[in-house]
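FAQ

Q: What does a record look like?
A: Structure on top, sequence underneath. For example:
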């Protein structure tokens, strides 16, 4: 089976603030594209983008997209807090054996997202 999720877009109201937030939290160098009324900053490996587009608004409600942190969940949580994000659910052990930990946060734009980590 191919990957289940082909594309994820995270809405932004302040494009550069969102790009800066994700670059710093996840230690990325997102490539951006400006298409006039729309802008995108692409995540590594082609799985999605931060998107600024008319009528595409950040939300704490709706689908929850989670980002993998590998062995760096604690460090990622600290960077989110340092950069003005809000931790909604702290690091929590997943009850299923061998599934690791999760947390949820609010990004610089007001979107709720999840984190998954091994430890």
């Amino acid at each position: 089976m191919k990957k289940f999720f082909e594309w994820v877009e995270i809405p932004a109201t302040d494009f550069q603030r969102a790009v800066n937030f994700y670059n710093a939290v996840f230690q990325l160098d997102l490539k951006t594209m400006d298409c006039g009324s729309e802008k995108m900053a692409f995540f590594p490996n082609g799985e999605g983008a931060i998107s600024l587009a008319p009528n595409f608004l950040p939300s704490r409600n709706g689908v929850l997209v989670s980002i993998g942190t590998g062995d760096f969940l604690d460090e990622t949580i600290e960077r989110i807090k340092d950069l003005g994000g809000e931790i909604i659910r702290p690091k929590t052990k997943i009850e299923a054996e061998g599934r690791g930990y999760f947390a949820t946060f609010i990004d610089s734009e007001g979107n709720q997202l999840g984190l998954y980590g091994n430890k």
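Q: Is there anything notable about this one?
A: DSSP finds two helices and eight strands in the chain.
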